[in-house]
Amino acid sequence: MTSEKSSGFMGKKINLFLLIIIVLILLGFGGVSVYYQYTFKDVNQKYDNISSNLASCKQNLSQTADDLITAVRNLNSTTTDIRKYDVLYEEKAEELESKQTELSNTKAELTRVTLQKEVYKKQIDEAYSKIISLNNTIDDLNQEINSLNNEVEDQKDEISCLLNTEDDEEYDCI
After folding, report:
1. Burial class (CB in 10 A: 0-12, 13-18, 19+), 161
2. Contact at 8 Å (CB) between 162 and 170?
3. Residue 141 CA from chain centroid, whole number
4. How far, rounded to the nearest angstrom, does the alpha carbon of residue 174 sit from its chain's CA centroid?
5. Chain-centre distance of CA 128, in angstroms?
6. Contact (Cβ atoms closer than 8 angstroms) between residue 165 and residue 172
7. How far from 15 is each of 19, 27, 28, 110, CA to CA, in Å?
8. Considering only CA atoms, which of 106, 125, 102 is closest in space to residue 114?
9. Over the range 97-129, which residues count as b (16 or more CB within 10 Å of their CB) and which as e?
10. Digits of tens for pLDDT over the chain (174 positions)?
């Protein structure tokens, strides 16, 4: 019985020991479960935060990509416009150069015509002076002709008087 007693006591100690080990294991599992539950909540919360952050980043990336596509289109449009304006600028520059050459030629022609006008004006002034001088000469000559005509008339009258009068009375005719 002593062996029964000892085995009974030992059996009770082993059973108690096993019970304590099982309780400790259960407490360990419970503690680990609680720990992992809190850790899982934290990890899950971090995952949700990262997931929403990723969604926000995806949305921002999508918006940025759309903005980039729009900017590239605008840039291509602007490049096309710049090319058009370059061509237009070259055309207008050529037109300006042509107009400047035309203006230069017109100015040269105007200068030539102005100088020619001055020469003609001088010639016309000289001709008018000559005409006035000749008109004065004509007036003088006409007066001289009138004077000579009057003398001729006087001479004719005198001749006629001399012819029609007698020699001794001819003194009256002179």
Report:
1. middle
2. yes
3. 76
4. 103
5. 57
6. yes
7. 6, 18, 19, 134
8. 106
9. eeeeeeeeeeeeeeeeeeeeeeeeeeeeeeeee
10. 444 555 565 656 778 888 899 999 999 988 888 888 888 888 888 888 888 898 899 899 899 999 999 988 888 888 888 888 888 899 999 999 999 999 999 999 999 999 999 999 999 999 999 999 999 999 999 999 999 999 898 888 888 887 887 777 766 776
134: tokens are 């000749």
Phi/psi for 166 (5° steps) reads -80, 160
Q: Assign 3-class secondary structure to the chain.
A: CHHHHHHHHHHHHHHHHHHHHHHHHHHHHHHHHHHHHHHHHHHHHHHHHHHHHHHHHHHHHHHHHHHHHHHHHHHHHHHHHHHHHHHHHHHHHHHHHHHHHHHHHHHHHHHHHHHHHHHHHHHHHHHHHHHHHHHHHHHHHHHHHHHHHHHHHHHHHHHHHHHHCCHHHHHHCC
Residue type, 12: K
| The overall pTM is greater than 0.70 | no
Torsion sign, CA atoms 79, 82, 88, 93: negative
